[in-house]
Amino acid sequence: MKPRLIRWLVGTLLTCLMAIPALALEAEFRTNQGIFTIKLLPDKAPQTVSNFVRYARESFYDGTIFHRIIRDFMIQGGGYDQRIRKKPTYPPVPNESDNGLSNLRGTVAMARTRDPDSATSQFYINVVDNPHLDGQPQRPGYTVFGRVVAGMDVVDRIANLPTRAWGQFRNLPVDPVVIEQVILKDD
């Protein structure tokens, strides 16, 4: 079997096992910079939302940092602890960027490598419209799976913090931005 097909089958199985409720979920992010809430969109990105919910239910994101902040672009987190150590993840989920959603201001999408099917735990929040990150007919994009519904001012505050280069990181906040807790809520 081809690796992409195997990933798709694994992702489909995970979606079935997670049994996401029909109602959309919300995830409240409590950070050391304030609180913001995202609405998850399981009807548009079921495997991606299932993946995110699994990490959140296991408290994976608690104590992680936003390690990449680029003013007038996005903020990225969900992969490193406060000592800037990469956290171990589950296998990647299939790319669902062909779901009709666009990387607009306030949307939440999965970070990945050049491999379209490489997203694991890291996500980013668009602080401006970034349609160049959307999928094209011959080029998968970045899967949007939620949107900020409260606290965009907190996201904007984070996006405007000073950053520095450190090791492999080019846009690490000078002072850590910690995700203290992610709380899942029914809509």
Automatic annotation (TrEMBL):
What organism does this protein naturally occur in? Thermohahella caldifontis
Any one Gene Ontology MF annotation carried by this entry is:
peptidyl-prolyl cis-trans isomerase activity
| Catalytic activity entry | [protein]-peptidylproline (omega=180) = [protein]-peptidylproline (omega=0)
InterPro entries on file: Cyclophilin-like_dom_sf (IPR029000), Cyclophilin-type_PPIase_CS (IPR020892), Cyclophilin-type_PPIase_dom (IPR002130), E_coli_cyclophilin_A-like (IPR044665)
EC annotation? Answer: 5.2.1.8
Q: Recite the UniProt keywords alphabetically.
A: Isomerase, Rotamase, Signal
Signal peptide span: 1-24
Q: What is this protein called?
A: Peptidyl-prolyl cis-trans isomerase
Name the Gene Ontology biological process terms: protein folding
